[in-house]
Design a protein that fits this description.
Layout lengths: L2 E3 L4 H9 L5 E2 L14 H19 L4 E11 L2 E3 L5 H11 L3 E11 L7 E11 L4 H9 L20 E5 L2 H5 L3 H10 L4 H4 L7
Parallel strand pairs: 1-2, 1-3
Antiparallel strand pairs: 3-4, 3-5, 5-6, 6-7
Helix pairs in contact: 3-4
This protein binds thymidine-5'-triphosphate.
Length: about 200
Amino acid sequence: MNLLLASASPRRRALLAELGWTFDVCPADVDETPRGGETPEALVGRLARDKALHVGRRFPDRWVVAADTVVAVGDAILGKPADREEGLAMLRLLQGRAHRVLTGVALAVPGEETPRGAVECTEVRFRPLDEASLRAYAESGEGDDKAGSYAIQGKGALLVEGIAGCYFNVVGLPLTRLSALLGEAGWPLASQWGGAKDA
Ligand SMILES: Cc1cn([C@H]2C[C@H](O)[C@@H](COP(=O)(O)OP(=O)(O)OP(=O)(O)O)O2)c(=O)[nH]c1=O
C-alpha cells in the first residue's frame, strides 16, 4: 500500500475509503492565502500542488494525493467562512443563482520533481431562498468548515436546484479526475478496483 492522502478533510478520506482503496493520511500545513489577482482556478491548482509537494518531500517513496476546494462567483473566491456572519453573507450571495465549485487535485509521484495536477469545475445552482431559511441553515453549523459555507452531501442538499459536472468534486475530491491522474502515472484503472496501490 503506497497511497498517502495529504488532507485533514474527513470528506476526502471518506470518498477514497468508499472506493475500497487503502491509504494513510498526513495533512499538509500550507499557507492558503490567495495571491493578488489570482483567479480561483489558479488558486486551487497552486494550493493542491503545494500540499502534494509539502507532504511528498517528507515521504518521497509514497504516491501523495492532495486537493483544495473553493466556491467561485465570477472571480470572487469563497473559501471557508471565518465565522457564522461571513457564512451567512456567502449563502445570501449564492441563493437564487449558479456558482462554480473548483477543486484542484494534485499527485506527487516518487522520482518526479513536480506534482501532476488538474482542476475540476462543477456548476451548482441554488434555489431562491428567503432570509429565514438562510439563517436557519447557517445556524445549523454544517457549513462552518466548508468552502462556500454549505455541504451538498448534508442538509445543504436542500439548497441545491441542480448541478452540472462531477458531484464528488463538490464534496472535495473529483474521483474520476483523480483516477485518470493515477492512471497516467502508472496505476491503471483495471487495478484501481483491486484496492491497494503497491509500492
Ligand atoms: C462546497 C462544499 C465544500 N465542502 C468541503 C470540502 C473541503 O473539505 C472543504 C474546503 O476546504 P479545503 O481547504 O479544500 O480542505 P480542508 O481544509 O477541509 O482539508 P485539507 O486542506 O487538509 O485537504 O469544503 C463540502 O464538504 N461540501 C460542499 O458541498
